[in-house]
UniProtKB/TrEMBL annotation:
The keyword Transmembrane applies. Residues 466-478 have a biased composition (Low complexity). The chain crosses the membrane at residues 24-44, 64-82, 94-112, 124-142. Coiled coil: none annotated. The lineage of its organism: Bacteria, Bacillati, Actinomycetota, Actinomycetes, Streptosporangiales. Residues 479-488 have a biased composition (Basic and acidic residues). Residues 330-418, 460-496 are annotated as: Disordered. This is DUF2637 domain-containing protein. It comes from the Bacteria. Keywords: Membrane, Transmembrane, Transmembrane helix. It comes from Nonomuraea fuscirosea.
Length: 496
């Protein structure tokens, strides 16, 4: 008798009524089992999501499909090795489970190593060869235990398909890393079609190809007609050549738009010019690329030679002493002779005695013989002139004052309150010591405020304790004009 869902529900209700304690325990265990199942499903979902994000989402679709197909083919190969290990080797139980797929595991390991070698060294190396060797070994061993020919072919094909998919993925990665393929085939369909004039190597349209061919026919027909005329061919040959040229020109004008397109006109004329002057190619002297290198080297050596000559001339000129002649005559003698040299005169009168001639001579310079200085027989004496010196230019020094008057830092003057306080201090000093002179006041002000003598004397003038005999006020100078130096002449000369 087949029980219905209602009968099952009625039996459960009767069991709960009859056994309430065990029913409660079973209910609690069921709830715990549901909670554990929920947690396991959640953990499984997280693991799958992490694997998808880490290994699947970042890969292209073709890589994922390659991995899936290779895994299926490897599984088929492993199933053949399971049967081979059981039927031929006699493995059974746990021993067969542990040892049947050792070739597939080694093949996958070699494939992983080959991929790492590709990423690090740019080539698969010996591990790539090991993948193909183990693939062939697994295919042969699996097919040896086949029970029919189709099964043997299937077991041979499965590992080879897995290895081929791995090789193609490696080729794509190799091209991505190195930018080149392993080999370039010389005989390809594209090259065969180009050799048979069935395809072209560029992407010209049909109109461009037809235009080029018609203009080329015109240029070749013109060259043929000119060659026959220059060779003195028979009139019949020349007429046939001109007729072919005329037909080619008519077709070019009709189908290429030669009359309206200046670019095509220039293209046709360029072809004709190149064909007419083919013989001139034998007269061209091509320049090798190393000729420019030789010219550059010669120019560099010439520049270096000229630079060395210029430096030698400059050193010779700088080491040579130039002697300039000094015009000495009766009106201008040596060492101030003649009475017109400023350095030998004092207040307009030449130094020495004897008729206004220096050195005490009577109109004749010292050490002269026969009217010639120093006993020379000529009228001039070459005297070495001092070498001209370039004026030394120094950058202007920005002199500033601190609030106390010393030169340092940026421009700063004492405030009005500070200046008033210093002047009051000078007045108090004079009241307490009335016998102080201006020089004593200046020295005390220098010692008290650490200022220069000029600044101290300016304070004394502003206090009215020193005479103001300067010209132009305090802006032109801080001391009277008849002082010799700013550093020492800070007081008038008539003060004691």
């Amino acid at each position: 008798m087949i029980s219905t869902p209602l009968d099952v529900a009625a039996g459960l209700v009767d069991y709960v009524i009859d056994n309430p304690g065990s029913s409660a325990v079973l209910a609690v265990l069921g709830l715990v089992g549901l909670a554990l199942a929920f947690l396991l499903l959640r953990l499984l979902w997280r693991v799958v999501s992490w694997l998808w994000t880490r290994y699947v989402a970042t890969r292209p679709v073709e890589d994922i499909l390659t991995i899936v197909a290779a895994s299926i083919a490897t599984g088929v190969s492993a199933q053949g090795m399971w049967r081979f290990s059981g039927d031929v080797l006699g493995f059974d139980g746990p021993l067969q489970l542990l040892l049947f797929a050792f070739i597939e595991v080694a093949m996958v390991t070699s494939a992983v190593r080959a991929r790492r070698s590709m990423r690090e060294n740019g080539r698969a190396g010996v591990d790539g060869l090991a993948v193909w060797a183990m693939t062939g070994l697994s295919a042969v061993l699996s097919s040896m235990d086949a029970r029919s020919l189709p099964e043997a072919v299937f077991r041979l094909a499965a590992p080879i398909v897995a290895a081929w998919l791995w090789e193609r993925s490696m080729a794509i990665e190799r091209q991505r890393l190195t930018g080149r393929t392993r080999i370039n085939w010389r005989l390809t369909p594209e090259r065969l079609f180009v050799a048979l004039s069935l395809a072209e190597t560029n992407d010209r349209t049909a109109t461009e190809v037809d235009t080029h061919r018609r203009l080329t026919r015109v240029a070749l027909a013109a060259k043929k007609a000119r060659a026959l005329r220059e060779a003195g061919a028979s009139p019949r040959k020349q007429r046939n050549a001109l007729a072919r040229l005329d037909r080619a020109m008519d077709r070019a004008v009709e189908h290429t738009g030669l009359v309206q397109d200046p670019a095509r006109q220039e293209q046709m004329l360029a072809q004709i010019a190149a064909l007419y002057n083919t013989a001139k190619l034998t007269e061209i002297q091509p320049v090798p690329f190393w000729h420019h290198l030789a010219e550059e080297r010669a120019e560099r050596e010439e520049r270096e030679r000229k630079g060395a000559e210029a430096m030698a001339v400059l050193r010779d000129f700088s080491g040579r002493r130039v002697l300039l002649p000094a015009h000495a005559s009766a009106s201008a003698g040596v060492n101030g002779v003649g009475g017109d040299t400023p350095r030998d005169t004092v207040n307009g009168t030449p130094r020495g005695t004897g008729g206004g001639t220096p050195n005490g001579a009577a109109g004749t310079p010292r050490d002269t013989a026969g009217g010639t200085p120093n006993g020379a027989s000529g009228g001039t004496v070459p005297t070495p002139a001092p070498r001209p010196r370039q004026p030394v230019t120094r950058p202007p020094r920005n002199v500033s004052r601190k609030p106390n008057g010393s030169r340092h830092g940026t421009a700063a003057q004492p405030s009005k309150e500070e200046l008033t306080r210093r002047i009051a201090w000078l007045h108090d000093l004079v009241k307490t010591q009335p016998d102080l002179s201006v020089t004593d006041l200046r020295d005390k002000a220098v010692k008290e405020y650490s200022v220069s003598p000029r600044t101290a004397y300016r304070y004394i003038e502003q206090a009215g304790l020193a005479p103001r005999d300067t010209t132009g006020g305090d802006t032109a100078g801080d001391t009277p004009r008849d002082t010799d130096r700013d550093t020492t002449g800070d007081t008038p000369p008539d003060t004691a």
